[in-house]
Amino acid sequence: MKYLLLIVGLLAAASVATYARYESLDPCVWLVHDAARQSGLPPLAEETRMRAAFLVRGITEPDFYDCLDAWWRLRFEGASKVD
Fold first, then answer.
1. Residue segments in the chain with a per-residue pLDDT below the cut of 70
2. What three-state secondary structure class fits 54?
3. Tell me, what's the pLDDT at 83?
4. Burial of 38 by CB count in 10 Å (0-12 exposed, 13-18 middle, 19+ buried)?
5. What is the CA radius of gyration of the chain?
6. What integer pLDDT is reported at residue 75 of this predicted model?
7. CB neighbour list of residue 53: distance below 8 Å, 6 or more residues apart
8. What gap in Å lies between CA 16 and CA 53, rounded to an integer?
9. Cα–Cα dist 13/9, whole Å
10. 8 Å CB contact between 29 and 40
């Protein structure tokens, strides 16, 4: 039982920390935020670039998992791997 409480507590702390950093729990927002910081482009320009990258891959409306996958690649492989 105490492990369940520990896991719930860690999940709550991670959610609060994520919301504090990005002001959202949407990975598409995280993706644009981090990509804009890495590239130096304004967030609107970076969002447009990300949408174009998704369109090239045949994704017209990126969902939670598409954005989460792209965000992980951006975080761990660098901005050049997102496109």
1. 79-83
2. helix
3. 53
4. middle
5. 15
6. 86
7. 70, 82, 83
8. 30
9. 6
10. no
- The model carries a pTM of 0.79
Place of tokens 């496109």: 83
CA distances for 3 relative to 6, 7, 10, 42, 82, angstroms:
5, 6, 10, 43, 36
- DSSP three-state, residue 4: helix
What is the chain's length? Answer: 83
The number of CA neighbours under 13 Å toward the Cβ of 19 is 7
- Enumerate the H helices of the chain as residue ranges: 2-22, 27-39, 43-56, 64-77
